[in-house]
Amino acid sequence: MPATDRIAALRQILERHSLFGSLTPDELDQLLAHARLQTFRPRQEIFRKGAPGLGLLAVMKGKVRISSIGPDGNEAFLTIIDEGEVFGEIALLDGGERSADATAMTACELLAIDRRDFVPFVRANPEVALRLMSVLCKRLRRTTELVEDMIFLDAPQRLAKKLLQLAGGGTTINLSQRELGAMIGLSRESINKQLGHWQQEGLVKLGEGGIALVDLEALRAEAGI
């Protein structure tokens, strides 16, 4: 693709992005002058916890898994970054090390913006700083909710709530039972047992393509929402 066509395509993507959507064409061109597009294969590492935090990444296509390995070697599956969302914003603001691991769940196209280029851009476009603060607040609320769920909800409640959140209004979830367990602090065996029980009751259906949510109302009742 010619460079001019590529920039035009990236501009169209950014115009639909929650963080950059209100920028003028000139402002988008300023941003794209420093941005670069990166592609990743499924399961390819994007960055590792402790690596230098060079800047922010926006998901143009695909899904990214954010996780962390504890001192005992167990993985905590923190969240999924979907198309149209950003990650790496903490390092973008403070220039510190990456606080978690990022891995491509699917084939991904990411727009990378280095901190040294983005900080002056934000200073010149304060509305972007306000939207970035909104992203950070949303991420903080999500983390607080996860901690509260771990403390106050039992295992079936946590699992039902996470299934509904991951479905996002749909009915299919393409995650392994091990990955689900890592997100809510349960073993794969516990996840398998509960899902098997719900399958017998007609709440879910398990298959090679993932987990299908069959009875959403019953799952909401299980989650207490």
Could you describe the 3D structure shown?
With 225 residues, the protein is α+β, with helices and mostly antiparallel strands. The chain folds into two domains: 3-150, Jelly Rolls (Sandwich); 154-223, Winged helix-like DNA-binding domain superfamily/Winged helix DNA-binding domain (Arc Repressor Mutant, subunit A, Orthogonal Bundle). The protein has nine helices and eleven strands. The protein has helices at 3-15, 25-32, 89-94, 115-124, 126-152, 155-167, 177-184, 188-201, 216-223, and strands at residues 36-40, 45-47, 55-61, 64-69, 75-81, 86-87, 101-104, 108-114, 172-173, 204-207, 210-213. The protein has a four-stranded antiparallel beta sheet with strand order 1-8-3-6. Strands 2-7-4-5 form a four-stranded antiparallel beta sheet. Helix 6 (155-167) packs across helix 9 and helix 7 packs across helix 8 (188-201). The radius of gyration is 19 Å and the shape is elongated. It starts with a helix and ends with a helix. 26% of the residues are buried.
